[in-house]
Amino acid sequence: MSNSASEAASEITLFGEVRCHKTRFYQAALEERGLPYELAEVDKDEAAAERLTALTGDATKFPTFQIKGRKLRNPKLAELDKRLAREGLYDPGLQHDVKQQKFLKYMAPTDAFARYRLKNDQLVLDHMEIAGDLRGKGLGKSFAREVLQYLACQS
Q1: Domains in the chain, CATH or no CATH each
Q2: Which of 36, 88, 122, 135 has a CA 20 to 30 Å removed from the CA of 72?
Q3: Phi, psi angles (nearest 5°) of residue 121
Q4: Cα(144)–Cα(150) distance, rounded to whole angstroms?
Q5: Model's pTM, two decimal places?
Q6: Is the model's pLDDT at 38 over the cut of 80?
């Protein structure tokens, strides 16, 4: 377990082995983000191996995360950030999807997004959306500010 309180760490469990390079990669990612977590070493702790088997059906299916009770197996870093953000544990900031021409903010129950198009070498925001049950909490306003600040820094 990391140096943080066990209550907070119980929200993120990383099942793996310290000798596994992917486990070490995820440990570094969590520590870089300042997130408390439990490292469940399946090679050294029989209870950890049993917990992983209950979660995945096999104690060799690692690295695997359990984040607020939900399983995430061997994710790409962007997928991990997305899950952590949607669970309210980490804010990776504004995401810019150039290919789909939109800005994203990961949140639950659905991501906020601002779609744009390029017209005469100018970026035109043409649609912004946030989940209905999040309206009235200032999150849309905050998201819009974040998008506009990002654009101001790019020009």
Answers
A1: 6-86 (3.40.30.10), 95-154 (no CATH)
A2: 135
A3: 60, 20
A4: 10
A5: 0.82
A6: yes
